[in-house]
Automatic annotation (TrEMBL):
One of its GO terms (cellular component) is plasma membrane. It is a multi-pass membrane protein. The chain crosses the membrane at residues 6-29, 56-77, 83-100, 107-126, 142-158, 361-381, 410-433, 439-456, 491-511. PANTHER family: MULTIDRUG RESISTANCE PROTEIN MDTO, P-HYDROXYBENZOIC ACID EFFLUX PUMP SUBUNIT-RELATED. Keywords: Cell membrane, Membrane, Transmembrane, Transmembrane helix, Transport. This is FUSC family protein. GO terms for molecular function: transmembrane transporter activity.
C-alpha cells in the first residue's frame, strides 16, 4: 500500500480545516445542529477547486429546492402519514430519475433536491409546527458548510481544473498518436492492446466530465470551455477514423493493392503524427492525398473502392489531427480566437447528445421509492424513536449509488463503515468529549479523525470509507454548544443509521441490482436498435451527432466489458466495427438523395437488410449471406451510374458496410471483378 503523497495530505488538511471552520462559525452564530455544516463539507469538497465550486453551486440550489418542498408537503399531510410518506418518496424518486437522465454536474442538483426533502421532512413529523424554522436552519447549516468548503478550496493552495485537464488531454492524444503509428505501419494488435485502445473512449468520457467543471475554474483554461468541447468532438471522431483506416490498410494488403506510392504516403503521415501532428505540415500531405485520389470509373474494382476509402479516411485523419493540435495549443494559452479555420467546422458545434437509459433510471427511481417506503413501514410498525433517521438514510443511500449497475456492495460497505464510525464515535463521545471545555480543545480532539477521513477520500478505493466516516461520523458525534450526549439516544441513532442503510440495500437488491454484463447488454442492445433505426430512416442524418451518441455509449460500455467474466461472449464483440457501420449508414442516407431511382431501390434493399440484421439477430451473430448479396448488388448498380451526385459516397459507404459486416468475405464479385480483370 502506497503512503499518501503531499497532495493527499494537503487535501486532508484542507477538508478538515474547512470542517472545523464551519463548526466554529455554526457554534458562534448558535445554529441548532452545527454538525450538519461539518458533514456538508465532506460531501461537497473535491480535490480540484473548480469541481468544489461547481458542486457547491448545485448543492446550494438543490438544498433550497428540497427544503422548500419539505415545507410544502409536511404541514398539510402531517396528520396523514401514509400520504406524507407517499409524497416524500415520490418526490425523491422523481428527482433521482431526472438526475440519472441528466448525466452532467447539474444532475447533483436534482438528486440533492430529492433526498433533502426527506432529510428535512421525516424528522419534522414529530414537530410539524416548527417545519419552517427547521427548514431555514438546515438550509443555513448546509449553506455554511458549502461556503466554507468553497472558500478553503479556493484560497488555500487551490488546485485548478485547467492544468489537470490539459495534462489528461495531452496523455489521451499521445496514446491516440501511438495507435495512429501502429495503424499506419500495419502493426498487429494484441488483445491487451486492443483493450487499451477501447479505453480511449472511456477516458474521453472522463475528460468530458472533468471539462464540465472548467467554467467554475480560476485557471487560464477556464476561458476556453467552448474550445474544449470542439476538441472533445474531434478526439471522439478519431476512434472510428483510426478503426476504419486500420481495416482498409489490412484489406489492401490482403489484395496486394498497397502500391509503393501509397506506402510512402502512409509512412509520411506516420512521421507527421509521430512529430506531434504539426498544423503547418498538414496542408502538404492533404495535397498529396488529393493528387493520389483518382475519380472512380464506371464499374470500379473492389481494390479501387478500398483504396478510395482509405484515402478518404487518411484525409479525415489529417484534418482531425491538425484540428486537435491547433485546439490543444490554443487551450493551453487560455483560449482566444483561432488563427485559422478548423476542418469540419459545422459538424462539431453545440452540445453532443448523450445516452439516456430511461429503463434503468425508472428502476432506480422505483428502488428509491420502495426503499423509503420500507424504512417508514418499519418505523411505524415498531414505533422506533429514531425511525425518522432510518427513513432519511434509506432515501439518501438509494440515491447516492444509483449510477452503479449493482449498488448493493457499495451500500453494504457504507453500512459497514458507518458501523465502524459508530463504534469510534462512541469512544470519542463518552470517553474524550466530557473532558472538552472550549473550542480549541474540541478542534484538537477532532482534527486527527477528520484528517484521517480526508486521507481516505483521496483514493478511489477508499473514498466510500472516508465519506461514510466523515459524513455519518459527524452526524453521530452531533456536536452542540454544550455536552448533552446520552448513551441510549446514541445507540438508537447508530442503529437507525445502519438499519436504514441495510433496508436500502435489501430493497435495492430486490428491485435494482444488475451485473456489469447486464448493463453491457443493455448498451449493446440500444446501440443495435439505433443502427437498425438509422438504416430504416431515409433522412440525411447528422454524422457527428450520431457518432457522439455511439461513442458516449462506448465510453459507458468499456468498463462494463472489463468487469464482465473472462468467458463472456460480450468480450468477443467488435464494438468499433459497429461504430463504423453507423458512420457508413449516415453517409449512405446522405448519398441516397442524389441517386437515380434504380440505384435508390438497390441501396434501399441493402439498408433494409442491415436493419433486419440488427433487429432480428443477437449481438455477435454473423450477418446473413443474403445481406452480402444485397450490398454487392447495390455496389454493381450504383457503380454503373457514372457522374451522378452522391455516387462516390454511396459506393464508399457500401464498401465500408461490407468490410464491417463481412470482414472475411472475398472481394466483391460480378461486374466489379470483371472490370478489375479488364
Amino acid at each position: 500500500m502506497m503512503l499518501p503523497g503531499w497532495r493527499q495530505w494537503l487535501f486532508a488538511l484542507k477538508i478538515s480545516g474547512a470542517a472545523l471552520l464551519a463548526l466554529g462559525i455554526a457554534l458562534w452564530v448558535d445554529l441548532p445542529r452545527p454538525y450538519w455544516a461539518m458533514a456538508t463539507v465532506y460531501i461537497t469538497m473535491q480535490p480540484l477547486s473548480g469541481a468544489t465550486r461547481s458542486k457547491a453551486v448545485y448543492r446550494v440550489a438543490g438544498t433550497l429546492i428540497g427544503v422548500s418542498m419539505a415545507v410544502v408537503l409536511v404541514p398539510p399531510l402531517v396528520d396523514s402519514p401514509e400520504m406524507l410518506t407517499l409524497g416524500l418518496a415520490l418526490w425523491t424518486a422523481g428527482c433521482l430519475y431526472l438526475s440519472l437522465l441528466d448525466r452532467s454536474p447539474r444532475a447533483y442538483l436534482f438528486m440533492l433536491a430529492g433526498y433533502t426533502a426527506a432529510l428535512i421532512g421525516f424528522p419534522a413529523v414529530t414537530s410539524p409546527e416548527a417545519i419552517f424554522d427547521t427548514a431555514v436552519s438546515r438550509a443555513e447549516e448546509i449553506t455554511l458548510g458549502i461556503l466554507c468548503a468553497s472558500l478553503v478550496a479556493s484560497l488555500v493552495f487551490p488546485e485548478p481544473v485547467g492544468p489537470v485537464l490539459a495534462a489528461r488531454v495531452g496523455a489521451w492524444l499521445a496514446e491516440a498518436g501511438r495507435w495512429t503509428g501502429d495503424v499506419l505501419s500495419g502493426a498487429g494488435e494484441e488483445p491487451a492492446l486492443r483493450a487499451r485502445r477501447l479505453r480511449l473512449a472511456a477516458e474521453a468520457a472522463e475528460i468530458d466530465a472533468l471539462a464540465a467543471h472548467l467554467a467554475y475554474d480560476t485557471s487560464a483554461q477556464s476561458r476556453a470551455t467552448s474550445l474544449v468541447q470542439l476538441l472533445r468532438g474531434r478526439m471522439l471522431m478519431l476512434l472510428p477514423v483510426l478503426s476504419s483506416l486500420s481495416d482498409r490498410i489490412a484489406a489492401l494488403r490482403g489484395l496486394s493493392g498497397l502500391a509503393p506510392e501509397l506506402r510512402t504516403l502512409l509512412a509520411d503521415v506516420e512521421a507527421w503524427s509521430a512529430a506531434g501532428a504539426p498544423a503547418c505540415e498538414a496542408d502538404a500531405l492533404l495535397a498529396r492525398i488529393a493528387a493520389a485520389d483518382r475519380p472512380l470509373p464506371p464499374h470500379p474494382s473492389w481494390p479501387a473502392l478500398v483504396r478510395a476509402s482509405l484515402l478518404d479516411r487518411l484525409r479525415e485523419l489529417l484534418a482531425i489531427g491538425r484540428d486537435c493540435r491547433v485546439l490543444q495549443d490554443r487551450i493551453a494559452k487560455g483560449g482566444g480566437a483561432l488563427r485559422e479555420p478548423l476542418a469540419f467546422a459545422g459538424e462539431f458545434g453545440g452540445r453532443a447528445p448523450r445516452h439516456r437509459d430511461h429503463g434503468m433510471a425508472l428502476r432506480s427511481a422505483l428502488g428509491a421509492f420502495l426503499g423509503t417506503i420500507a424504512c417508514v413501514v418499519v418505523w411505524i410498525a415498531t414505533a422506533w424513536p429514531d425511525g425518522a433517521t432510518a427513513a432519511m438514510m434509506g432515501a439518501v443511500l438509494t440515491c447516492l449509488f444509483a449510477t452503479q449497475d449493482d449498488p448493493v456492495p457499495a451500500i453494504l460497505s457504507f453500512a459497514t463503515w458507518t458501523g465502524v464510525a459508530a463504534l469510534a464515535i462512541g469512544v470519542l463521545l463518552f470517553g474524550v468529549m466530557p473532558l472538552v471545555h472550549d473550542f480549541v480543545s474540541l478542534a484538537l480532539v477532532l482534527a486527527p479523525p477528520l484528517v484521517l477521513c480526508g486521507l481516505l477520500m483521496t483514493s478511489p478505493k477508499t473514498l466510500p470509507v472516508g465519506l461514510a466516516l466523515g459524513v455519518n461520523g459527524n452526524a453521530l458525534l452531533a456536536v452542540q454548544d454544550r455536552y448533552t450526549s446520552e448513551f441510549g439516544s446514541y445507540v438508537n441513532a447508530s442503529l437507525a443509521l445502519v438499519g436504514g442503510i441495510w433496508i436500502a440495500a435489501m430493497v435495492t437488491r430486490l428491485v435494482r441490482s444488475v451485473g456489469a454484463e447486464h448493463g453491457a447488454r443493455r448498451l449493446i442492445a440500444v446501440s443495435r436498435a439505433d443502427l437498425a433505426r438509422a438504416a430504416r430512416r431515409r433522412g440525411r442524418g447528422d454524422r457527428t451527432a450520431f457518432a457522439h451518441l455511439m461513442l458516449d455509449r462506448l465510453g459507458l460500455l468499456v468498463p462494463r466489458l472489463a468487469a464482465a467474466p473472462p468467458d463472456s461472449p460480450l468480450r468477443r464483440i467488435d464494438t468499433l466495427a459497429a461504430l463504423r457501420v453507423g458512420m457508413n449508414l449516415v453517409s449512405l442516407r446522405r448519398a441516397r438523395h442524389g441517386l437515380p431511382a434504380e440505384a435508390v431501390a438497390s441501396l434501399d434493399a441493402a439498408l433494409d437488410g442491415v436493419a433486419e440484421h440488427y433487429e432480428r439477430t443477437s449481438a455477435g451473430s454473423p450477418a446473413a449471406e443474403a445481406l452480402l448479396a444485397h450490398i454487392d448488388a447495390a455496389l454493381a448498380q450504383i457503380g454503373a451510374e457514372a457522374g451522378t451526385p452522391g455516387r462516390r459516397d454511396a459506393l464508399l459507404g457500401l464498401a465500408g458496410l461490407r468490410r464491417a459486416l463481412f470482414p472475411g468475405a472475398p472481394p466483391a464479385g460480378g461486374a466489379l471483378i470483371a472490370r478489375e480483370a479488364a
